[in-house]
Amino acid sequence: MKKYTILSLLLITCLLSCDKDESSRSFARVNTIGVGNIDTDGVNIKGELYDTDSKVIEDHGFIYNLKSNSVAVPNNSHIEGSFEKESLGSTSGDAIFESKLTRNLIADSTYLAKAYAVTNGTIVYGEPLEFVSKGGNGPAISSFTPDTIGYGDLLTIKGNNFSIQPSNNTVVFDNVEAKIVSATDTSLQVIFPKGPRFKSCPFSVRVAQKSINSHNNPIIAAPRIDSISKQVVFARENITIYGENFTRTTALKVDDKTAEEFYYSEYQSDSILQFRVPERMPIDDHNITIKYLDDSITFPNMFKTILPTIDSFSPKEIWLDSVITIKGTNLRKLSYFGLPGNNAYNVTDTLAYCRITNVPESNKIRGYFDSHKIVTKDSIKWHQPTADSFNVSIAKASETVYLYGDNFFYGLDIYFDGIKASTNYIDKNTVEVYIPDVKAGTYHPTFKYNYSGNVIDTLPKAKASITIPQIKITNVTPLQVKRGSIITLNLENANISAHTNLEVDGKYCSIIEHTENTIKGRIPIDYCISKTPKVTLSIGGQEIEYHTPLQLSDPWECMSHSEYQHEYNYITHINDKQVAIIRNGPYDNDRSLYMHNGDNQWSYLSDVDFDGWIYNMHAYKDEIYFPAHLSYDDYLLYSYSNINKQWKTIDTIPIGIPEYSFLIGDRLYLGNTKKMCYRDLNKNEWVTKSAVPTSRYSINKKLIFKAGKKAYLGIYKYMTSGYGNNNEYNEFWSYDSENDSWENLGEMPVKIWEEATASVYTDKAYIVGRGYQDEKTFWEYDTSANTWQELVPPPGLYRKYTSFIINNEYFFGCNYYIQANEYPFVMSKIPIANMQKK
What we know:
Layout: H1 2-24, E1 29-39, E2 42-50, E3 56-66, E4 84-92, E5 95-101, E6 110-119, E7 122-125, E8 129-132, E9 140-145, E10 148-149, E11 154-160, E12 169-173, E13 176-177, E14 179-183, E15 187-191, E16 203-207, E17 210-213, E18 219-220, E19 224-228, E20 232-233, E21 238-244, E22 249-254, E23 257-258, E24 262-264, E25 272-276, E26 285-292, E27 295-305, E28 309-314, E29 317-318, E30 323-329, E31 335-339, E32 342-343, E33 351-355, E34 366-369, E35 372-375, E36 381-382, E37 386-390, E38 400-406, E39 412-416, E40 419-427, E41 430-434, E42 441-443, E43 446-449, E44 466-468, E45 472-477, E46 480-481, E47 486-492, E48 500-504, E49 507-514, E50 518-522, E51 535-539, E52 542-545, E53 551-552, E54 557-558, E55 571-574, E56 577-583, E57 591-598, E58 601-607, E59 613-614, E60 618-620, E61 623-631, E62 634-641, E63 647-652, E64 660-664, E65 667-671, E66 676-680, E67 685-689, E68 702-707, E69 710-722, E70 725-736, E71 741-744, E72 755-761, E73 764-770, E74 777-782, E75 787-791, E76 799-806, E77 809-815, E78 825-831
Parallel strand pairs: 10-18, 20-27, 29-36, 46-53
Antiparallel strand pairs: 1-2, 2-5, 3-4, 3-6, 6-7, 6-8, 9-11, 11-15, 12-13, 12-16, 14-15, 16-17, 19-21, 21-25, 22-23, 22-26, 24-25, 26-27, 28-30, 30-33, 31-32, 31-34, 34-35, 37-38, 38-41, 39-40, 39-43, 40-41, 42-44, 45-47, 47-50, 48-49, 48-51, 49-50, 51-52, 54-78, 55-56, 56-57, 57-58, 59-61, ...
């Protein structure tokens, strides 16, 4: 009982104490009643004011924030900087109040909200309530100030539904976030950042995961120039400009040239900009264009560029070792300064000297600055060379003479009627001269300095003169000649050490011997020569023709040129008509079949219907067969019908590469060093035969022909060289088709490294061949006796030898070189009965 009495006394004491505190309380009470009507526009919330006791409520409303961001503190206290506030303003008396929270609400996020009231400067809060938001209203922008702005300036954005907490707002200018310095629900103040790319700068405001873009953009202020450090400058000098808004400068141009070096004094302000004047500027007033962001601004006539000047010099008349005094302005800025070939020295801004150690290349003193050439108005006057006499009055081409005069110098060129002579400078008064290749006559030398036509005057005629005598051919022996004959020319007034050229019928002749008044030359064996060729000799600058033509004896008859180019030395016969592959275009695959109509005239049959390498061609009846290589390991046999004009792929060649081929009867033999077979052209089947038993790994250069039932194969082996001689070694085989056997016939005398062709008449083969860097030779090979006889060769040069026999006449043809990509086909013929031993 005593225990209960004590508890009762304690309770009464507490109540009396509370009554005393309430009576002295100076603020009203507030209660958070509840939330409701949560939707995508916000949430309704109610609070209650009570125990106001007629006190004035200075402010009341609600605060709220994400639960995750709320700070749990005791006694219902609140950290003002962390919450969003919805203020309802002042009021009085006990009352129920409510509002709709619409801003800074993120959908599906949990918030804590409290009612609050301010009385006599004291804030009291109701208990926090928890709710899950469905979202709220996003921010809206109504205006901003100022319209034009610079980096670091303060920009005020007006609108609605901003967060009063600066950290809950995000303002972005062209992807660059700005610092927010103050925020209310209707106003944001931000510092305009560096980094936007556009003069008209878009921006956006983001609150509670909702963004709004401004319909209008602030304009970033353009640079402004107030003054410039220099108004008269040289190219490549630095200029400082003063003004405003240089920080956003991205490039600077002077007129249309970019100043590669510029910078602004960012550590001070954006009011100073320095740049280097570009090179190669015209002498004029210049504009400055500053590019900033995506725009530019031009300031006209800001400065002028000038050049150094060369005002005067003395003396005017000079020669080697003269010293010239030069006056001007800013001379030290000049490069390559002086009289060309003689650089200035002891150069100051206004004075320089130039010692003449070389003949000048110009008659003007000059210097260069910034690609400008600065020259004097006046010209120097050089002491001109004079020519008084030669040591002789008559000289021949390439002879050495001496010219005497004054003011000669090293490098002075001497001309005879426009033809330059080789010289050897001796001293100021003497020059050694080699008589150039000029025609007969009397000459007065003229002068020219290679490096300047302005300094050295070309004299119309010097006092000195010299005579070049007329060269004469007094006799030529013998007059009766053949191709390959040696002729002797007797001469007068000739210097054989001069450039000499001997021609017969316009064809170059090799000179095999010469003395002071005699030349021996060999008539070329490879060219077609007319029956009465003329002899022409060129020595120095003179060309002399002998008055009596030669009389040529030659069993070979040259035929007219063909307009076509025989690119392959393969030819076959159809019904006694020759068919050849002729290249009729600039490329290797521009190939066609042509038939010979006589006198080196060819008619078109068909284009070759496939690309690739053709090894040979053979005709059987009215069909032409072509062993060919199209691609790696792809060897095919093609045919062309002269009856139906059709191409056909016959079969794959079973032996691989067909290095040689020949036709005996209806059998087309194809072989290499490892295998041989024939194609039965009637049965259309392949039959294996014995390959040539050579020790060679492959057959690249060859001679092949057939006579009767036998085929003959010449194979190049190797070559030895020394002291101008090339010794070729080869093998010569015969194949007996009836016994399928090969016989080694020893060495061939004919060389085949460069070219070879053969045609058979009865039992004799007529062969033209040419070894490495050799003349071609012509041979008769008796197949029955295995003997060789050298014959007088046909005319013709260069490549792609071709031969055939018609009506007891032997025809030989080849390409003749005229110029690049021009090789006409030339042909000659001879009756077999008229062939001559060599």
